[in-house]
Amino acid sequence: MSFRTLKSIFHEYNESKMKDEYKRRFNSLASFNTNINITPMVNGKKVVDKKYPLFFMVTKNLSKKQELISLNSRRIDSALNSVPHAVRE
Predict the structure, then answer these.
(1) Cα–Cα distance for residue pair 59/63, rounded to 1 Å
(2) pLDDT of 7-39, one tens digit each?
(3) Residue ranges per domain, the chain?
(4) Angle at CA 6, nearest 5°, toward 52 and 65?
(5) What are the angstrom distances between the C-alpha of 33 and each of 37, 39, 47, 53, 79?
(6) In which region does residue 82 sit, left (phi positive, over 0), alpha (psi from -120 to 50) or beta (all else)?
(7) Tell me, what DSSP letter sits at residue 76?
(8) What superkingdom heads the lineage (predicted)?
(9) Is residue 38 classed as helix, strand or coil in its secondary structure?
């Protein structure tokens, strides 16, 4: 299952469906809410009277990439431990 953008949901359905999906994602256990607010832009100009909290979803794709990073990090640590200490610095 691919992860649909909110923009595509808005265009296929309507603003109400898109807002419902936004709320569902924002409040999901798989979302990570940051302490950063973003200001939307319309036609290249900031909309100064609105701010939205920045968050991201931990998708299957993101989780796989995180696991790959951990695996590569362990490989790098192992490789570094196999060389003399003077070389590591």
Answers:
(1) 6
(2) 999 999 999 999 999 999 999 999 999 999 999
(3) 1-58, 59-88
(4) 90
(5) 10, 16, 22, 7, 35
(6) alpha
(7) H
(8) Bacteria
(9) strand
Query: For 47, what's the count of Cα atoms within 13 Å in the CB-facing half-sphere?
Result: 10
What type of residue is 36? I
- The single-letter code of the amino acid at 50 is K
Indicate the length of the chain as a whole number.
89
**pTM flag (> 0.85):** no
pLDDT tens figures, 31-87: 999 999 999 999 999 998 999 999 999 989 999 999 999 999 999 999 999 988 887
